[in-house]
Amino acid sequence: MSADPVQVDKVSGQTTTGHEWDGIRELNTPLPRWWLWIFYATIAFAFVYWIFYPAWPLVGSFTPGILGHTNRAAVLQDIAFSQSVRKEMAAGLEKASLTQIEGDPKMLELALAQGKAAFGDNCTPCHGAGGQGQKGYPNLTAGRWLWGGTLDQIQTTISHGIRAPDDSDTHTSAMPAFGKDGILKAEEIRQVANYVRTLDGLGPEQGIDVAAGKKIFADNCVACHGEDGKGNIDMGSANLTTKVWLYGNDINDLIYTITNARNSTMPAWGRRLDPETIKSLAVYVHSLGGGK
Amino acid sequence: MTISAEEIYDDGPLYEAAKKVYPQKVSGTYRRLKWIVLWIAVGVYYILPFIRWDRGPNLPDQAVLADIAHSRFYFFFIQIWPQEVYYFTGLLILASLILFLSNALFGRVWCGYACPQTVWTDLYFWVERRIEGDRRERMKLDAAPWTADKIMKRAAKHAIWLLIALATGGAAMLYFVDAPTLMREFFTLRAPALAYIWAGILTFTTYALAGHMREQVCLYMCPWPRIQAALTDTDALNVAYRFDRGEPRMSVKDAARARAHDQAAGDCVDCLQCVAVCPTGVDIRNGPQLGCINCGLCIDACDAVMTKIKRPTRLIAYDNDENRERRMRGEANAFHPIRPRTIMYAALIVLTAGIMLYVLTTRSNSHLSVLHVRAPLYTQTAEGGIRNGYTLRFSNKLADPEDFTLEVSGIPRVTLSSVVAKPLSDGRSSVRVDPDSTLEVPVYVTTAPDVNLAASSTPLTFTVVDPKTGERNVVVDHFFGP
Q1: How many beta-carbon contacts under 8 Å exist across A and B?
Q2: How much is the ipTM here?
Q3: Which pTM value belongs to this model?
Q4: Which fold has domain B366-480?
């Protein structure tokens, strides 16, 4: 190629690079000098970067750079900063009562936002992203509460949990395992389960003596669930007359519940979260539509 | 002419060294026009941030303000929120169309007169000329050894350049925060660090671009000359050397002799004044070219020479190919400002401006957006009704707190509950939104226990009214059930 004569373009007076396609020759148009300098400067910058920042991989580690910068430290610093900002903003929540928070638009906005975030971090695995719950984990949006749905009751439940082993103020109550402990026979359990379904307006199975079930209910269940089956939030006994069932209202689910008892648990969040967060959570959960 | 390949490949330069341009002082019509445009442009740049515009007690009173911290943009009566940034798209479309129209009429006049690169470079040339002298003195000074005099001149020039750069970069900050406050804080060293950092960056870019890069910006960095080359036509007026009149070039004496012998003689005396005054260092006699910014300084230079040698002026003029051909046919010059291209650009400008104006003047002061809560999609309540959750976001763009009324319709006997919205006696709810802000309002809509929904999804209408302004926002969403 070097033997080819290189021509000067007649129109522009520029030399060509010698590259030719179908008679068209490429003009030789070099970069301006300052452009080249900038290119060299970027190369020089790379060397500077290697010195100051983590750059080269080694066998088991990497060159750390003299600034000691790590992304993890930067993230932790950012988190610490946002926590300090949040702490400042939440200072008002610490002193105010839950009712005051709900009554003040600014504090309410903050509590809802903070509560939503804390709910997502801590409560969603069991209660669902929107508090809709799942089988065995209460729906917080339906207005049916085992331990009460007022602001204060929700706060207490979140702080101390339910049957939390590490909190002496936790909600405790235990439904007997009527079948497993031999209190009722299988036939009696089926009868009382059918009676309970009628409390919610559901029809009994064919050939079941519902009257017998009612008698069994009166003898064994009313102490906790009340004569009308409406439960008692002081002892966390379920209201059996609503459309909302924690473990389902299918007859087999009910029989299982009466036979084995459920007595599920919730952690005492007061031991894990700060009081402002608990307050925000209480306000948020109360706002989900089911609050009393 | 051929050069052997070795000569190019072995010794050819890797780069193109910039040829330093020493524009000579010139005076005339277009120079005067350039000064006028320069002072208007610089004046607007410095005065604009200090113009006040009353928007009420809760909003800034600066007429032009890009309030990054609160994510608002203010331009006199216009107030733009981040989600309305498409207004900028309209402004940009309008700006490009105006640029295209100006190009269809007068070529790259934007480059020659109004472009900040031109305006600030011109300002820097002026400083340079005052300190180091005109073209010849500057060339001599560049070649001279470093004497005390040269050091003094250079130091003074760069100091003043830097001062102008600082004033330019600093003034840019005035568009982002309250200008008088920043002025006070800036000079008492109490302004935020970011203001100094940005002022520093813009000081550097002004100094580098106007002081050192100059024509290199136009030649290598700017996309407009490339785009313009594709947009121009034979009717647009560009600075052009009328070679039909100028060629063949020869001295006054030679021309007199040639004409006496009935030989062709052009008016161009090859004095190179047009090249000497050119801020980008081009020779306009080579025809239209990328480096020409259409500023017309060569016209002034040539006119001065033509006047001196008593020949008609405008050997170099704002001209086009059309006219050259007409002259060669012996016809008079004609310029067609009104032609399909310019009519189309003008129509598009009117249309875009009209749409923008309509949209901006009818821009609502409130907004409602509704987002259905997805988890749970619906809830069966303990009482037996069906409940749906919605996240409403109210926007109040006014300077006063507004009390909006909220009403839900589409399904009989539904109740609306919310911790944020306060119920009114007539069944509607009231939501107070702070001035110039938005508010998220979680809302729950619950049917009466005995209502049977006909379908798993029923349209539900949210109506928000601002009783003070009468503005209504209606959003139709859906109510889900089993």
Answers
A1: 129
A2: 0.77
A3: 0.79
A4: Immunoglobulin-like (2.60.40)
